[in-house]
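Q: What structure does this chain adopt?
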Amino acid sequence: MQTGKLIYVIEDDKDVCTLVQSTLEEHGYEVCVFNTGADAKRELKRRQPDLCIVDLVLPDIGGLTLVQDIWKLSRVGIFILTGLGGSADRVLGLEIGADDYITKPFEPRELVARINSYFRRISKTIDGITAVSEGTAHFMGRTFDPGTLSVTDDAGNVESHSAKEAGLLFVFLRSPNQVISRDQLLNLANPNDLASSDRRVDICISRIRKKIADDPKNPTIIKTIYGAGYLLACKVNWSN
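A:
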């Protein structure tokens, strides 16, 4: 089975690298292994993968810092793989851009299942947006392009969004000035092992707010309606 997907494994434990690489290659993924963050970043500038699996403890750079650096270089999927299992680490990892969090020791089949699920979600989100898209959405001096999952402001600055973020933003843009409950957003947020599903939604919306210059601490575009959900408080125009 060939998936056509390239995965970077950034991990300094050679036994873990061997296990992850052999398991993923058995399921049709192309895998490149890097034992330092610096090596991975150099290759990211040359070739973009579909997913990065990042250990939090690396010899040259902190894993969370590396996640942020990866996001500056490329909007790829990111899984954190680590022996640090505290909920605070999980939440922080998700807040800065990780899509999932796998704790060591792990079951290889679970890792494959989560990766497969991640790629299915991306495909479903993009296909869903494409199927019902009315072109580009214009709101608050910004333009959302469903084809590139990006938002451009009037100054020409472009912010790319992950498929998960773009999916949530698309829901808001399709229903402006309407309250959307957390329950309605949960399938897009896709909670896995995080204790609070609501928290997963909140984290994703906080990231969207930052990208559209909506202050997460005092939002005026995507407003929190306490006890009810969220509301996109602006006019939206669609054009082909």
